[in-house]
Amino acid sequence: MTRTAIVTGASRGLGRALTTALAAAGWTVVVDGRTLSISLPGVIAVPGDVTDSWHRARLVDTALGTGRLDLLVNNAGILGPSPRPPLADYALTALREVFEVNVFAPLALTQLALPSLRSFEGAVVNISSDAAVEAYEGWGGYGAAKAAVEQASNVLAAEEPKLRVWWVDPGDLRTQMHAEAFPGEDISDRPLPSSVAPAFLDLVTGRPPSGRVRL
């Protein structure tokens, strides 16, 4: 039976590149995004916001409608305010939104997906960043959220030994989020998201032990 994955935040950038790679490799891919327009063989689009509990349930139900769920890729995320404020000036309402999208929503979706992932000894990929482990000025909000994602992933891996759980740092890529992080700067020297797709496919097919992965 064809393997099924959920990829969040597939409207553009890394999520779209990973979706395209999985579909080309024969996976059925259920994808979401707030502004989603994608038409590829094997890809099922479920437009919506990952912070919406009804939408998360619909994503998982759609995947289970294919007969199985083997992989969850929590890619959807937001940078937060741009230009990036120092922590001394970071509005807590904005920080709560960053954590809501980057930490709470992926955990909630993972909780819904776990029963099926356990049945098929599946995998969870949580997209992280070097900002989770390095201290960069202006990256306090986003970096703190990604650090929370990494530790939650680490604990999940310990609690679910039959699954694979990877927290993945894709590096600096030429994406809209990266452009927002450096407003007015030329980021054309960064590689395209598609450049990391082969390493991502190697990860999900090779199934190394759970842990932090740099693509």
TrEMBL record:
Gene Ontology MF term list: oxidoreductase activity
Ubl conjugation recorded as keyword: no
Q: Which UniProt keywords apply?
A: Oxidoreductase
Q: Which domain of life is it from?
A: Bacteria
Has keyword Oxidoreductase?
yes
Q: Which InterPro entries match?
A: NAD(P)-bd_dom_sf (IPR036291), SDR_fam (IPR002347)
Which PANTHER family does this one have? ALCOHOL DEHYDROGENASE
Query: Which family does the record claim for this protein?
Result: Belongs to the short-chain dehydrogenases/reductases (SDR) family.
Protein known as:
Short-chain dehydrogenase
Lineage, uppermost ranks: Bacteria, Bacillati, Actinomycetota, Actinomycetes, Micromonosporales
